[in-house]
Design goal:
seven-stranded mixed sheet; 5 helices; alpha/beta; 7 strands; 21% strand
Length: 172
Amino acid sequence: MPILTTEDLALAYADTGPRDGPPVLLIHGWPDDASTWDAVLPALHQAGLRTIVPTLRGFGDTRFVGDAPRTGNSAILAMDMIALMDALGIETFMVTGHDWGSNTAEALAVGWPDRVERMAMLATPPRLGGMPTPPFEQAQRRCRASATSSSARPPTQCRAISSGSSRAIPQP
């Protein structure tokens, strides 16, 4: 992966697909990395889309520069993505986020609405511009229903997932 140096990061990213295709920014979640998107890249490229796949701060070959904030804050990650797209000369783009990457995609759409043409959020509830988060019990029920219908997310992880954070939340 090439490395692009911004004010805060040495940011690893892949820029693949047709160079003249409409750009799609694909943002991975936590604790994933850019390889999250490997299986879908061929279909996106076949559809004529250019894909930009960064490795977020704290992951893979992306490194902090100087005193850059060591944070996973969605707004900071969104600013990292804008710096990447600016450096690549991409003014408008589509964005897809998975898990924590969805929060970043949402922050991009809210903070830079003139730049985001379309957005897809995978594995996260939308809260565009401040929509209320569902009550804990409702989110927990959703997580448990998902966990029982799929082996992808064991019920023991529902406490942290349903609260929207990465720390364990005591069961009621």
